[in-house]
Amino acid sequence: MLGLLQGVSELFPISSLGHSVILPKLVGWHIKQNADYFLTFLVATHLATALVLLGFFRRDWVRIVKGIGRSLRDREIAPGDTDAKLGWLLVVGTIPAGILGITLQDKLRNLFGSAEYASIFLACNGVLLFGAELLRRRAPQTDTDDDARIARQVGWWQAAVVGAAQAIALVPGFSRSGASMGGGLLVGLSHKDAARFAFLLATPIIGAAALLKLPQLAGSEGNGVRGPAAVGAVCAAVTAYLAVRFLMRYFETRTLVPFAVYCLAAGTSAAIYFAVS
Questions:
Q1: What angle do CA 51, 212, 222 make, to 5 degrees?
Q2: What distances in angstroms separate CA 125 from CA 49, 217, 251, one per listed residue?
Q3: pTM of the predicted protein model
Q4: pLDDT value at residue 236
């Protein structure tokens, strides 16, 4: 169940970490969210999600890697080389997110890693999504190619800000994809392009974070949890694939509002339940 939930909630802008903290408390599972075995389990499910994203956007990544290679060879980004521009935008967005993640990850999860806090922050995530919709900036379409539109619309400092915003997902209840999509809307991307940029930006972040902790799964900390982690990873991969296919079609014509309503309602309801129980 946690694997199925993670695959969906990591890509839907509703916070996978928040749901992984809230659900066990709601249904009475005796899981310590800050325990090594649980974090090791989450590593496996996150790695599966990253691999699904890499496979889904494999053609984009081939173009992006080739574009970065061309820019390194020529020691410049050619004016019309949107693949190279997009690749370096992703690099610029990944660096601050990586630094903040390494620096703040354990502190924030230990400080706010309770179901009560996660419920409150899930409701706050709904407010964040509402705010992104209200403040979004509409820009003219600059190209028929999805990646080219993103490369032309997003600036360097904007990529850094959107990338850094992902660090808010270290607090259970806030969504990585929600922060990235909201940032994309604020810089003028369409919903479809904002989702695409968010998923491309999330792939190296989620994958690198999982790979860094993968030795824990192979080491002594993985004893007793490798079987459940493998099952969870497979389940996460299935739902992540279905989620990214659905969302890329959904955002062609629709907005973040339904997810904002869900987060606000679910977070508020859970917070009230925990307060009175």
A1: 90
A2: 21, 31, 19
A3: 0.91
A4: 96
Q: Mention every residue, 6+ apart, whose C-beta is less than 8 A from residue 226.
A: 217
* CA separation for the pair 13, 171 (Å, rounded): 14
The tokens of 75 are what? 């020691």
- Check: CB of residue 239 under 8 Å from CB of residue 8: yes
- In angstroms, rounded to a whole number, what is the distance separating the alpha carbons of residues 73 and 257? 44
Q: Which residues, at least 6 apart from 85, have a Cβ–Cβ distance to it below 8 Å?
A: 67, 77, 151, 152
Q: What is the pLDDT of residue 210?
A: 80
Instruction: State the Cα–Cα distance between residues 189 and 174, nearest whole angstrom.
Output: 21
Q: 114 CB contacts (<8 Å, ≥6 apart)? A: 21, 33
- Mean pLDDT (the chain) is 89
Would you state the structure tokens that stand for residue 55, as one six-digit string?
A: 């496979």
DSSP symbol at 81: -
Q: What is the token pair recorded at 134?
A: 């209200």
R_g (Cα) of the chain, nearest Å: 18
The CA distance from 257 to 186, in Å, is 15
What average pLDDT score do residues 29-36 get? 76
Q: What pLDDT is stored for residue 163 in this prediction? A: 87
**Average pLDDT, integer, range 65-72:** 96
Where does the pLDDT of residue 55 fall: very low under 50, low under 70, confident under 90, or very high at 90 and above? Answer: very high
Provide, rounded to the nearest whole percent, the portion of the chain with pLDDT above 70: 95
Chain mean position to CA 193: 15
Terminus-to-terminus CA distance in the chain, angstroms?
24
172: its two tokens: 């259970």
> Residue holding tokens 């496979």?
55
Round to whole Å and give the CA distance between 87 and 171.
28
Lowest-confidence segment of 34-43, 112-121, 150-159, 171-180 by average pLDDT: 34-43
